[in-house]
Each structure stands twice: as structure tokens, then as C-alpha cells.
Give the backbone structure.
Amino acid sequence: MSATPRQKGLGSRILAHRWNYLFLVPMLVLFAMFTLWPMAASWYYAFFNWDGVASPTDWVGWQNFISVATNPVFWNSFKNSFLFSLVALFIQMPLSLLFAILLNNPKLRGRNLFRLFLFVPVVTTTAVIGIVFAIILDASGGTANEFLSMVGIRPINFLGSEVTALPTLMVIETWKGFGTTLIYWLAALQTVPQDLYEAARVDGANGFRQLLHVTIPVIVPIAIVILVLTFQTSLNPFDLVQATTRGGPNLSTDVTATFIYRYAFDPGEEGLLAPRMGYASAAGVIFGVATLVLTLLQAPLLKFGKAGR
């Protein structure tokens, strides 16, 4: 008798599917070069006082980590990054769910066109969006302020005021990522069996009761996954901030990614003569560990979601 797949050794199975594994090689190489290596290198460089030139030799141990952890500017940037996530969780997610429910209605005419319009910002380059909004929201001559002047409202310095800059960027980021969360919700809604809706209608449940007692209980496990994904992706609005305010005014829109960028690639912004790659690496490591901890704190939700399946 010939050996079954379970009886064959690992080497035999790899050999049998060698072409499948061969096609995975480019992806694995790129993953190692642009994900694994930068992660490992960040930990290594964080223990050196290094300017990015030649090989690091000035070992400083944990000093970079201590300096970052005691720098109030870093924690201000971390706070702003976290605020972006809170907006995504408590505004973007519920709002996109509402739109997903509306667009999931087969009786709605043109719903595919509406989906397209809402998803277009997702596939548009964030840097381009940032530049366009910087022009539109310009305090002098921007389209938005020209419109406000026409209706008798004084011009607003949307991106140049410490009061309005961060909320303005949050609105833009919510609009930019709205389509992604919308697609997640639409996929979740497709998992609800139509039989449940029919049974609810037979029992006399109206649309709101169907949503409350049928739709939401069924999509809760997927909703928890959407929550985790939304939280992770919203922590890094670097490209939008860098293209519009560069962390200003007066660091009011500074996020952790722009903080790291300045020390690593734009030292003049911090009044430095040379980049501090080791310091920037330490900041990246601390932010990465903090993000991991915050994600792990959501692990009970994931277990709850699996139990509800």
C-alpha cells in the first residue's frame, strides 16, 4: 500500500508541492527584507548612539529608552496617535456600520455607485489627499474659507491653529479610512442568513428589532475582528500628518511616527546637527511594544468573538 499524506514525511510533502513553495519565495524574501529585518535592526540600533553613518559603535545601553520614556514630547505624540484610534473606534466604526446597513439593502437603487464613491478615498494616495486638503483649507484663499466668507463667517485657520488642527486631521483621516471599515461591515452583513430575517418578520419584528435581535448578535464575532483591525491601522496617520502639518502647529498634531521621523531623517526640526537613529529606533520599539500590549488587551474580546460563533 502507498503511504497516505499523513504518513509521508515533511520533506516528501515539500518535495511533492515544491512549485507551490517556490512561488512563495519572492513574498518571503520581501517580507524578511522589509518587515523582519527592520524590526530586528530597530532593537539592535536602539542600544547605540548612532547617526546612521557607517556601523554603530557607541554603545549606550538602555539610555535611549530612558531618554524617550522621560521625554514629554514623545508622550504627547503617543497621546495624539491614540486619539486617532479613539475617533476611529467610536465615530468611524459606528458611522460606517450605519452606512453599510443602508447600502446592504437590495431595494436601494444605485447602491453600488454609492459604495464606489465611499471607497474611492481608500485607493487615493494619502499624501495627495493631504496636499489637496492643505490647499482647500488654507487660511488665506482656500476654497473652504472663501465659502465661509460668502455666507458671512470669518475665515478659520483649520490647519494652522492649535485648537482646530488636530480635529481637522481626524475628520480627514476618518473620511479617508471610512471605505475600508465600510467594506468590512458589508462583508459581515453578508454572513447573516436570510432565513433569520424571514423568521423575524413572521414574528412581527420591524426593521429596528431585526437589527437589534438578528443582525447585531450574528455579526458580533466579526465586529470584534473589525475593531482590532481598525484600532491597529488607525494608530499610524503618518502620511496625512506629514503632508499637511508636519506635526505642527506647536506639536499639536504630532504623532509617534512623525516624532520618530524627525529624529531619524529630519534632525533640523529638532535643532540637531545629525540624525539620532538609535534614539528614533528606541522610540519605535517603545511604541511597538505599547501597541502590542494594547492589542493584547483586546484578546479577551477575540476569545468572546470565537465563543459566539
